[in-house]
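Subject: two folds for Thursday's group meeting

Dear M.,

Sorry for the delay on this. The cluster queue was jammed most of the week, so I only got both jobs back this morning. I'm pasting them in the order they finished. Each block is the input sequence followed by the predicted structure tokens. Could you check whether the formatting survives your parser before we put anything on slides? The first protein is the one we discussed after the seminar.
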Amino acid sequence: MGTFIFIFLYFLVGDPFLVRDEAIIKFNLSGGSGKVAFDFSPQGKYLAVASFGIEIWEVNKKEKIKQLTQSDRFIECLKYTHDGKYIATGGDYSSIVLFDAETGRAFKYFDTKRKAVNKIEISNNDKYLAANVDGQYGYEIFIWDIQSGKFLHQIKSNQNACFCFHPDGTK
């Protein structure tokens, strides 16, 4: 079995492809058209894909193994935790939703104060969740403690921000 190249292409015709060992593997995704959010599980065994719902695919078998949710709201971003236990999603609704990757159950909600989320990052130690939110008067980065759900910090910006956590999870 070859190594996966972590490139996901989205062609104008709306068909997502995963590139592997110079061969293109097509995933037949359900849901609406438009932008697709995706993330690999930490070991690369699963691919979570979202647009108006979340599908979990087993990569080697090219099989959809789970439909976590179907939604009338657009999911713009998603991220696995580094331990692979949870998937965080954000979009054009007023919260980030944390799902149990095994059961598919949504169990924690992080309030974004009625603002759309367009990027999510999780610290390497899985303690913190950060999100870029599109506010009425600019962009903001919100940071929460994942375990407690407590809102920790807000950083205002006049532009869409790029950000990440330091590898040790403390910055």
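Second protein, same layout:
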Amino acid sequence: MHRPADQLHIRHAVTDHHGFSGPPSSVCAKPRVFGPCATATRSLVSGMRPPPSEMDQYLATLFSQDLHPAKKRAAENAEVLGLGNISLSSYEGHLLRFLMRQIRPKNICELGTLTGHSALWLLESLLPGGKLTTLEKSSAHAELAAEVLMPRARELTVEVEQLVGDAVTLL
């Protein structure tokens, strides 16, 4: 899942904790990571998802695993690329969509699209006629994402704009 604000917080927390240098974060004035969050932070930095906890396993039972074919394809593409460990789980996708629907967004910008898995959940939270703008550095990942995003956007009567390149220069 691509969460720019969380990534800034985690990056800063890791920067402070491990002594790496990096830009200061406006998201968290006193970054400290303890307990389960520290484990999750180390896992995110290493690119590995922590093993599912009992809570993860329980939450997974609460949500339907019957995913739209586009979501299944995006998840399969992530597995083929070796990126499955950073893809959203079903319950994380349901939670993301639920939270975004509370906001009732007309426009969403996602940084880092990969295979489009999280973007598909975001599409479902847009109001009709809404727009999702995705930024992806890799043209190969952007092509895979387009294969699942564009047809689903037409089904949902929303728009997708994909921008390929470095987000720092695109923004």
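Two things I noticed about the second structure. Confidence is low (pLDDT under 50) at residues 1-46. The beta strands are 107-111, 131-136, 159-164.

Cheers,
T.
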